[in-house]
Each structure stands twice: as C-alpha cells, then as structure tokens.
Amino acid sequence: MATAQSPRPLRKDASINRERLLDAARELFAEKGLGVTLNDIAHHAGVGVGTAYRRFANKEEIIDTLFEERLQAVESVACAALDEPDPWLALSFYLRRALQMQFGDRGLQQILDDQTLGDERINDVRLRIAPLIVELVYRAKEAGVIREDFEPTDVTFVLSAMASIMDSTRDVAPDLYERYLTFMLDGIRSGDRQFTPLPTAALSSETTHTAMTRRRRKPKVVDAKRTTSQ
User: Fold this and answer.
1) Could you tell me if 74 and 165 lie in one domain?
2) 116-139 tens-digit pLDDT
C-alpha cells in the first residue's frame, strides 16, 4: 500500500532565497503598501525574477505566508499569556505584547484588508485567536480584577485604536502609545471605586468581525448568464 510522501525540504540556497524574498516583502509592504509586485520584491531581495517565481507563484502566496506567520505569532503570545497564573498580568501582557508586535509589523497591518486572503483566512483569526482572548478576559472578570462590563470584543477595538496612535506618532514619539495603553489599562482595572456607566454595550463577535472587515474589497461576482451569452 502506497503512502503519501512528505514534501522534500528546500535546498539550503533555495531556503535562503525564500527568506530573503519574505524579508524584502516585509520591508516593501511597510514602505509602499501591498501595491508592489513580485518583481519589485525580487529586485529588493537581490535575487532574479525567475528565482522569485520558483519560490512563490505570485505575490498573493507571499501575503498568505506572512499572514500565517503573524497569526502564529499572535497565537503564541495569547497562549503564553494564558500560562501566566495572575489574570491581570495575563491580560495586560497580551495587550502589551500584541501592540509591540503591531509596532514592528507596520506593513502587515494592511494584509487584513486585502481581498486576496479570502474570508476563510480571515476566519482563522476568529477560530484560533478569539477563544484565547475570551478566556483571558473571562479569567480576569472571574478574579474580579477588571470591570464587569469589559468584554472580549473590546480587546479588538482597543488594539485597533492603539495601532492608529502608533501609526501617527511612531516617527516622532515611538513610545507614546504606551501612555494611552496605560490610561486604558487603568480604566478597566477594578478597585475600590465606582466606574462610570458605559454609554453603549459591547459589540457581539459577529458584529465586531463585520466592523473590522467592512473595508475589505470583495471580489467582483461574474454574471454567468452574460458570460455564456457573449
């Protein structure tokens, strides 16, 4: 009975070229956005265009690879946070580390808005990361260390708001976002005080997903009847 063979590992030079292409893509995406071509990436990496196309069929494969790397990194941070026995330290650690990763990953923030990933890849975030955040928040609420009306979906918008601050101040005051993160953390931490009632409820997971992906362009739907009639 035949068995499926695992993919052959890349030769050392092929593996080096692949990493050079990924490093070049990160730099160009950060500087110019996702509009660069695979040819641009190859030139920036210092490899031939033919070499680039042997490693990646197109730019979308590079985007998908970088997205998976980022997703794995965020997942690892969330798992590390859950290993922290102190619920407050766990939640604050996750928020701080997630923001530090965004700060060093400026160009890849655009990837979540890119249509080439498809809804399946975006849903990976919800399936793999969201349950970990839910556990972090509920542990903190059960321990009584954060306000009762703070919800897991609030984490998404806190990170989004902090990312905006980082983008606008990174060149003049790169640590400024820490000031506002401190305000936010103090604002959700419980203690011997009364919290101001929130003016509106937190969004559901589904509504949060819609809000965070609404700017993504949707692929055009081809009219099958028109296509066959032409």
Assistant:
1) yes
2) 556 666 677 778 889 999 999 999
